[in-house]
Design a protein that fits this description.
Layout lengths: L2 E5 L6 H13 L6 E5 L1 H10 L5 H9 L8 H7 L5 H12 L4 H7 L2 E8 L4 E6 L7 H7 L9 E3 L2 E5 L8 H6 L4 E5 L13 H10 L4 H26 L4 E3 L14 H26 L1
Parallel strand pairs: 1-2, 1-7, 2-3, 7-8
Antiparallel strand pairs: 3-4, 3-6, 5-6
Helix pairs in contact: 1-2, 1-11, 2-6, 3-11
Length: 282
């Protein structure tokens, strides 16, 4: 019996996931595979490097640093999350990621990115986060707020566009026990795009019609995935943890208190339902 964690993205709502994962680390829950999308991937790598608290720590320290995530970074670099500072300087120098422990764990980790030429999700196997930082940038490169990421001959943006919650991929890979961490509360439905936003997308990515089509269908596909997850959850075929309250955080106007609150909700939600998770896993 093998266990897979499926981690939804959601920008700073991902700190909810960080709280969930830290509680699971405290309990030494064995996981064989993680499939992470966007922020889910960025926080998820800390599980296999055994760096409890790292995700919360560097976000609290640098959340108001204009070199980290800001309109200033967007205007100067084309990326709202600064490439050199947030991905490379933090991970290599300021709050080093333990790449050696991650590699020695020999666990399976996938990050999901959207190929903008095909409009389809690609599941990138991550063997060394520090050596594959561009793959992690690709999974979290938010459309309209990030430059296109080039890896080899391919071009990518946020994995959430094509596969926000890759539970079907986990099933396809043959995992017996699947734990899904969502970052929206029960009953959430993604609203349809406005005509204005649809036009912006079509203009911005007019060279990539398949990507535009995927973007325009994203809301419908996301809601269908939620329906599928709920069906499996009701059958007790998967275990789902989701926020017990609203955890939306403004990426620009966030405060340290906002981030700590989101993390605490995740940690406490996992604490409350751990006995049920343990029953599912055993």
């Amino acid at each position: 019996m093998k266990t897979c964690l499926v981690l939804e993205g959601g920008a700073l709502r991902g700190l909810y996931t960080a709280g969930v994962l830290d509680y699971l680390m405290d309990k030494k829950v064995n996981v064989d595979c993680i499939i992470g999308v966007s922020a889910g991937a960025l926080f998820g790598v800390n599980y296999f490097s055994n760096q409890r608290g790292r995700g919360l720590r560097y976000n609290l320290k640098y959340c108001n640093d204009k070199r980290y995530m800001s309109i200033r970074s967007l205007l100067l670099t084309g990326n709202i999350v600064n490439k050199n500072f947030a991905y490379y300087k933090v991970s290599n120098i300021l709050d080093p990621f333990d790449d050696e422990t991650f590699r020695k764990s020999k666990k399976i980790f996938y990050s999901v990115a959207t190929n903008i030429e095909t409009g389809e999700a690609e599941y990138m196997k991550i063997n060394s986060p520090l050596m594959q930082m561009e793959e992690l940038r690709a999974t979290s490169a938010m459309p309209m707020l990030s430059r296109i990421i080039k890896i080899g001959n391919n071009k990518y943006l946020d994995g959430a566009v094509a596969d926000s919650i890759p539970v079907k991929k986990a099933i396809e890979l043959g995992y017996d026990r699947i734990v899904v961490v969502l970052t929206q509360p029960d009953g959430f439905r993604k609203p349809e795009l406005t005509d204005k936003n649809m036009k912006k997308i079509m203009i911005k990515y007019k060279k990539y019609p398949k990507f535009v089509k995927t973007m325009l269908n994203r809301c419908d596909n996301y809601n269908k995935t939620l329906d599928f997850i709920k069906e499996l959850e009701n059958k007790k075929e998967i275990f789902v943890i989701r926020p017990s309250e609203d955890i939306n955080v403004d990426a620009i106007k966030k405060t340290k208190e906002d981030l700590q609150r989101v993390y605490d909700v995740g940690f406490n939600d996992m604490k409350k339902c751990y006995k049920y998770l343990n029953k599912y896993l055993t």
